[in-house]
């Protein structure tokens, strides 16, 4: 037998048993985004490599070691997108979306990072993200966070913690960077190899180190939030005030630095303790410099992205309480004549009842085996059509999720009677 070809490590199939949970999440998210006036944008999965180098930053983990980059047949260097923000900004500039306009946009889709796979961390993963352009004040930062809070409510997710920080302006970061480097240099012997390397390239990322032996050093390091200018302070205070007024609890985490270089001022993450090491389910912040950096006019911007696999993992725990829609009915067909007529009957019903989810049995087989399939399909009702029913112009009907005798309805009355049958089967 030929050897099975396996999926690429860290890349997963979404099987039919799992897709209802994804659809539930996607539907709820879209509904919430629309309520705040965000519109969907779809951009290509492949972009010029240069786009990510210039936006995410040369000395970030993503660009240094995680991108899927290759040359295409023309010799262009292309990269499978590791995140969505850069592509949305590129598309906005290219299509003139930022000219004297504000834009509230959202997107979803697969992203690719060559990370070490583990629970909650994959090489192909999915994000749903949101970006607001053209608004500079903390009010939109507040709105973006309110959207996320409403999402958790709409999904029934509890126990997520909002962590906030500010990264100030580029000038404040540069001054702070020097202060931090001076401090870390003085304690160089306590730094691990990775952090020593970052000291020269990206020292702020050292604050993000998970190495337990460095935690005391990191705790005692100077914090950027204590060295802000008036403008940055006012922005952060405005954000905190807005969240207080909206009743959104948060924790200020001065060590929150994020792994992408484009951020300034607000950064935030929603974290849970229920997913082990990969507990960040949503992350984002402000990136006022990025549009200009990529060739557009200066345009303030703020946004976030959620990790769909991580949110689904949380939803998985409460799966039983979720309104996931199963098929309504399964049509059992005994005999050739019934099989033919049944196919027509099913089409007719779908035409008459636009919401109806009906599976028609195909391929014949015994009554017992057909009923087994009906049961396994998750449908609430079985409809039974055989030679005998056909001859008498009736159809058998039986609830599958609770006890009850099979009954009969005249075929002409079926479309009329079905909704009531489904309602009763539902409340069972
Ligand atoms: P990020 O923090 O790199 O930010 O990713 C956002 C979220 O995507 C993470 O919090 C996590 O839930 C999920 N995620 C990231 N990598 C993986 C992975 N390998 N496997 C599973 N899930 C993952 C961004 O990507 C920014 N573009 C967010 C943003 C939008 N900032 C402003 N606008």
From TrEMBL:
<keyword id="KW-0648">Protein biosynthesis</keyword>
<feature type="binding site">
    <location>
        <position position="127"/>
    </location>
    <ligand>
        <name>L-histidine</name>
    </ligand>
</feature>
<feature type="binding site">
    <location>
        <position position="113"/>
    </location>
    <ligand>
        <name>L-histidine</name>
    </ligand>
</feature>
<dbReference type="InterPro" id="IPR033656">
    <property type="entry name" value="HisRS_anticodon"/>
</dbReference>
<dbReference type="GO" id="GO:0006427">
    <property type="term" value="P:histidyl-tRNA aminoacylation"/>
</dbReference>
<feature type="binding site">
    <location>
        <begin position="83"/>
        <end position="85"/>
    </location>
    <ligand>
        <name>L-histidine</name>
    </ligand>
</feature>
<comment type="similarity">
    <text>Belongs to the class-II aminoacyl-tRNA synthetase family.</text>
</comment>
<feature type="binding site">
    <location>
        <begin position="262"/>
        <end position="263"/>
    </location>
    <ligand>
        <name>L-histidine</name>
    </ligand>
</feature>
<dbReference type="InterPro" id="IPR045864">
    <property type="entry name" value="aa-tRNA-synth_II/BPL/LPL"/>
</dbReference>
<comment type="subunit">
    <text>Homodimer.</text>
</comment>
<dbReference type="InterPro" id="IPR036621">
    <property type="entry name" value="Anticodon-bd_dom_sf"/>
</dbReference>
<feature type="binding site">
    <location>
        <position position="131"/>
    </location>
    <ligand>
        <name>L-histidine</name>
    </ligand>
</feature>
<dbReference type="GO" id="GO:0004821">
    <property type="term" value="F:histidine-tRNA ligase activity"/>
</dbReference>
<dbReference type="Pfam" id="PF03129">
    <property type="entry name" value="HGTP_anticodon"/>
</dbReference>
<dbReference type="Pfam" id="PF13393">
    <property type="entry name" value="tRNA-synt_His"/>
</dbReference>
<dbReference type="InterPro" id="IPR004516">
    <property type="entry name" value="HisRS/HisZ"/>
</dbReference>
<dbReference type="GO" id="GO:0005737">
    <property type="term" value="C:cytoplasm"/>
</dbReference>
<dbReference type="InterPro" id="IPR004154">
    <property type="entry name" value="Anticodon-bd"/>
</dbReference>
<keyword id="KW-0030">Aminoacyl-tRNA synthetase</keyword>
<feature type="binding site">
    <location>
        <position position="258"/>
    </location>
    <ligand>
        <name>L-histidine</name>
    </ligand>
</feature>
<dbReference type="InterPro" id="IPR041715">
    <property type="entry name" value="HisRS-like_core"/>
</dbReference>
<keyword id="KW-0963">Cytoplasm</keyword>
<dbReference type="GO" id="GO:0005524">
    <property type="term" value="F:ATP binding"/>
</dbReference>
<dbReference type="InterPro" id="IPR006195">
    <property type="entry name" value="aa-tRNA-synth_II"/>
</dbReference>
<dbReference type="InterPro" id="IPR015807">
    <property type="entry name" value="His-tRNA-ligase"/>
</dbReference>
<feature type="domain" description="Aminoacyl-transfer RNA synthetases class-II family profile">
    <location>
        <begin position="1"/>
        <end position="323"/>
    </location>
</feature>
<keyword id="KW-0547">Nucleotide-binding</keyword>
<protein>
    <recommendedName>
        <fullName>Histidine--tRNA ligase</fullName>
        <ecNumber>6.1.1.21</ecNumber>
    </recommendedName>
</protein>
<keyword id="KW-0436">Ligase</keyword>
<keyword id="KW-0067">ATP-binding</keyword>
């Amino acid at each position: 037998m030929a050897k099975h070809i396996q999926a690429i490590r860290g890349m997963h199939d979404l099987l039919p048993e799992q897709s209802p949970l994804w659809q539930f999440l996607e539907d709820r998210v879209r509904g919430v985004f629309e309520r705040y006036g965000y519109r969907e944008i779809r951009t290509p999965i492949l972009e010029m490599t240069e786009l990510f180098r210039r936006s995410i930053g040369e000395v970030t983990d993503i660009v240094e070691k995680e991108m899927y980059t290759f040359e295409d047949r023309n010799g262009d260097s292309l990269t499978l997108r590791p995140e969505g923000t850069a592509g949305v900004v590129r598309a906005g500039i290219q299509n003139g979306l930022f000219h004297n306009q504000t834009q509230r946009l959202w997107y979803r889709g697969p992203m690719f990072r060559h990370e070490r796979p583990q629970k909650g961390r994959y090489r192909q993963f999915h994000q749903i993200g949101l970006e607001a352009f053209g608004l500079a004040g903390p009010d939109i930062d507040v709105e973006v966070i309110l959207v996320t809070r409403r999402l958790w409510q709409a999904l029934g997710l509890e126990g997520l913690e909002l962590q906030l920080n500010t990264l100030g302006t580029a000038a404040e970061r540069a001054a702070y960077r020097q202060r931090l480097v001076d401090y870390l240099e003085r304690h160089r012997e306590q730094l691990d190899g990775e952090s020593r390397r970052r000291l020269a390239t990206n020292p702020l990322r050292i604050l993000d180190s998970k190495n337990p032996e460095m935690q005391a050093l990191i705790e005692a390091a100077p914090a950027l939030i204590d060295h802000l200018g008036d403008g940055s302070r006012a922005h952060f205070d405005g954000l905190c005030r807005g969240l207080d007024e909206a009743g959104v609890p948060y924790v200020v985490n001065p060590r929150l630095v994020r792994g992408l270089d484009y951020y300034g001022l607000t950064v935030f993450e929603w974290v849970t303790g229920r997913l082990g090491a990969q507990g960040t389910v949503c992350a984002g912040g402000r990136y006022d410099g990025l549009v200009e950096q990529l060739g557009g006019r200066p345009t303030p911007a703020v946004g976030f992205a959620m990790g769909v696999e991580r949110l689904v993992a949380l939803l998985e725990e409460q799966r039983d309480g979720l309104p996931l829609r199963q098929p309504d009915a399964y049509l059992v067909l005994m005999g050739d004549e019934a099989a033919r007529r049944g196919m027509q009957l099913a089409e007719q019903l779908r035409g008459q009842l636009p919401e109806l989810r009906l599976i028609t049995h195909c391929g014949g087989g015994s009554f017992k085996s057909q009923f087994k399939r009906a049961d396994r399909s998750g449908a609430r009702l079985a409809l039974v059509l055989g030679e005998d029913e056909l001859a008498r112009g009736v159809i058998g009907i039986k609830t599958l999720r609770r006890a009850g005798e099979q009954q009969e309805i005249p075929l002409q009355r079926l479309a009329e009677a079905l909704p009531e049958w489904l309602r009763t089967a539902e409340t069972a």
